[in-house]
Amino acid sequence: MRMFVLPCLAVCVALAHCGTVPVEEKKADGDDGKTVEKRGLHLGDYHHYQPHHEHHHHEHIKTVTIEKKVPVHYTVTKHVPYTVEKKIPYEVKVDVPQPYIVEKKVPVHVKEYVKVPVHVPKPYEVIKKIPYEVKIPVDKPYEVKVHVPQPYEVIKKIPYEVKVPVPQPYEVIKKVPHEVKVEVPVPKPYEVIKKVPYEVKYEVEKPYDVEVPKPYDVEVEKPYTVVVEKKVPYEVKVPVDKPYKVEVEKPYPVHVKIPVPQPYTVEKKVPYTVEKPVPYEVKVPIEKPIPVYSEVKVPIHKEIPVPEKYHVEVPIFKHHEHHQEEHHDYHSHSHHGHY
């Protein structure tokens, strides 16, 4: 405000002075006939100004300069402090077990079972093998000759004493543990390094503003009414000329044939004789005896299983007459087949 008030006062004083100068010049012309040009005033002597004493002394011309300040754009550099992260390395102790365990991955084949659907017929057929004794008829016992050298050699192991030379006196080496002192060079005085924690101060120029997110308004959708059409059932009367008959299905009996289990034919294995060639000795005249080596059969104890009875499921057939014929054939075969 002061910058604008002072120039305004200076302009007003200059205008007032210009208005008074022509009157004084006329008075001077009337008195002496001389023209004195007076321009400008000194602001400090404004209150002591006397117009009737001006002709006695010479006044110099004074100019009044008005300075007007015009704002000009200029760049201002502002220092904004910011945090600088500094990494300080420090020692981290990690306990390592001794001996150190090293895990090594070894590939292993793993069987993965995949479930596949398998069709199983019903009723399920189970085949059970029952062992039975097979008798092989032999016509007559035959002679088997085994060559035995004469005289027969019998090897018998007889233990005997073996003398081993042993020096006298006998030296026995026995390891006795004993303490072994190993000198370790230790400097004197011994240097002990102790780590003392201390505070590290970081210089910060001045506090700076930190932007904090402020809460802001969020528009929330309000519930509004929705028109829902609701269907209301009502009776509709249809005019019918006259009542008419409507056929309604009634339950009726249905005869179902239930199959009755009947006997069926079972194949039975009947033992029979099988002719098997039995080797026998054939004497061939030879000029000189030739050693003949033959196999000797040794009797071996063999366990023979005993046949057991097991239950066989009876199949279901549809036709009754056909089962009766099969039952009759089965009985006829069973009477003739047993021995």
Automatic annotation (TrEMBL):
What is the protein name for this chain? MAGE-like protein 2
Highest taxon of source? Eukaryota
Q: Which UniProt keywords apply?
A: Signal
Task: Provide the leader sequence positions.
Answer: 1-18
Instruction: Please name the source species.
Output: Drosophila gunungcola
